[in-house]
From TrEMBL:
Family per similarity comment: Belongs to the nitroreductase family.
Name of the protein described by the UniProt record: NAD(P)H-dependent oxidoreductase
UniProt entry tagged with the keyword Oxidoreductase: yes
PANTHER family (UniProt xref): NAD(P)H NITROREDUCTASE YDGI-RELATED, NADH DEHYDROGENASE_NAD(P)H NITROREDUCTASE XCC3605-RELATED
Amino acid sequence: MDLIQDLNWRYATKSYSNKKISNEKLDFILEATNLSASSVGLQPYRILSIDNAELKTKLGANSFNKQIAQSSHLLVFAAYNKVTTQHVRDLVKLTADKQGVTIESLDGLFTAADTHFKSRSDEENKLWAERQTYIALGTALIAAANAKVDATPMEGFDAELFDELLGLKERDLHSVVILSLGYRDEATDYLANRPKVRIPVEEMVTKIS
């Protein structure tokens, strides 16, 4: 039940101190995020971890979110612009290597996945990839709370600026959502000591037997 305590502790931090996250805690959050659930196991996104102060300031130039520049580290979740046959091939090869089986034994996986993505438009696959990033974001938030690292998920940022400064277009990626990491500044964050507000579980959940 410690996880419930961790989730009650976390909130969308509004103001950060200048304390830096240790490499150990950052790596823990990133490894946990990499283990997120992912449809077909494809992980159709990449994560950029930024701790360069000058770059963070530039990225936050057109945003009201001061947490971008204030953060110890900024995670950028960038989704594929499209899903290709090569992406599926890479997944099959990785699966074969990790599970100690032949690529040929995974022909069914390759055919099913490749056929599925080809049956949809690039725009449909792009939107699917974007939704997958939010699963990873959720895992990152939980991992950060478990590590007692504050975090703020944000959509209100200049995506075009991020894509340009981070060279995402050249990698056939686009920024979807970002997550600032650091430690709350209780002196300037008005939410730091306020109780968490959520509706009762009984109102949220309908149990059907």
